[in-house]
Amino acid sequence: MSKSNGEEPRPENRMERLQKGFRKRTVLAKERVQNIKKEDVKNFFLRNFFVVFTIIAVIVGVILGFTLRPYKMSYREIKYFSFPGELLMRMLQMLVLPLIVSSL
């Protein structure tokens, strides 16, 4: 069943093509991972600084929330902690509300 004896080669079925594609992608991914340098990681974090900073801020906020929950805080202390969140929510409202009104 080869071209040398005049017969057509058997076409690959879907599963064989899929497995072949997976193997090829796996090899390429391994080569890319092995070629990662310190400079590449640094450039990635610089390009995605705001995303990384946002994720870190969310994690810190969750940790702070769980650690400060058992303490009895005064009304003033609660306001100090809620102030940045209030500012963020009001800024988002200032952005979203004009967009909604203008789209009507």
Description:
This protein is an all-alpha fold. Helices cover 77% and strands 0% of the residues. It contains 4 helices and no strands. The chain has helices at 14-34, 38-47, 49-68, 75-103. The protein is elongated, with a radius of gyration of 28 Å. The mean pLDDT is 86.
Task: Name its key features.
104 residues, mainly alpha, 4 helices, 0% strand, elongated
Q: Rg to the nearest angstrom?
A: 28 Å
Bin the strand percentage: under 5%
Total helix count?
Answer: 4
Distance between the terminal alpha carbons, to the nearest Å?
68 Å
Instruction: Provide the residue-averaged pLDDT.
Output: 86
Largest sheet: none
Q: SSE order, as H and E?
A: HHHH
**Low-pLDDT runs:** none
How much helix, percentage-wise, in residues? Answer: over 70%
Question: Number of DSSP strands?
Answer: 0
Q: Could you write a compact summary of the structure shown?
A:
The chain is mainly α.
Write the layout of secondary structure elements.
Layout lengths: L13 H21 L3 H10 L1 H20 L6 H29 L1
